[in-house]
Hints:
single chain, alpha/beta, Rossmann fold, 7-stranded mixed β-sheet, 11 helices, about 10% strand, globular
Amino acid sequence: MTERVARALEVIASHLAAASPTPGDSDSFGSADAFVWHPNGRLAPVPRVSRVDLGLLKGIDRMRDILIENTARFANGLPANNALLWGARGMGKSSLVKATHASINVDRTPPERLKLIEIHREDIESLPALMALLRTSDFHFIVFCDDLSFDGNDASYKSLKAVLEGGIEGRPDNVILYATSNRRHLLPRDMMENERSTAINPGEAVEEKVSLSDRFGLWLGFHRCSQDEYLAMVKGYCGHFGIKLAEQELEREALEWSTTRGSRSGRVAWQFTQELAGRLGVRLSGK
């Protein structure tokens, strides 16, 4: 029994190793345009990224244009900034990152394609190891962390801080970091106020943690959408997926749906679209 378990574990380990790009292994990085980073040193390819078309993201035109321009410069080997997308929930922050990555790659041949690597918030401490792996590659990478924030006595933010600016090696020229957060300073206000009230030098105690968000050169704020923007999102989804309903009825139902949810956002618009499509028997193909 013990021998069978040991052999099974060896087989699993060999498969995981085979699927993991190694430093300088262009063929492995060329196998996909997106990967998920695991702290054991493995990059798992993502054959199909869950994303929405860039044209379906309504009410965030300014942020969209800025992020696309910044990403295009980076992909072309020009200077570009790390970006923090912060603000209201459900307004398309992570969707914009993924859609921007896809739009940049539209006309690029495989050797020139930009790679997207997602790192989970809880794996931030392994970020330096990921940077070491990517540094020797010929590809350009967006390292993306969704819903980034830090609580309590969590000191893992220091790993991110060093990669963004302060490390002795610095950020590799072929890597840029994009993060989304509901918090502008990545820390809850009560935590910052507690640091102020208990520290011998309140200014210095807070400065170390607040300065983390300052190291993102590009801040893009996302705010709650208006009623007109919300309805434009719903109509955009319905037009894209061929969902047909009289305009007045569509608006009435969409507003009623947002009222029951207590908010208006891109996420709420998408959830209403799924409800409506299911009720009318329309398949949301091509999402």
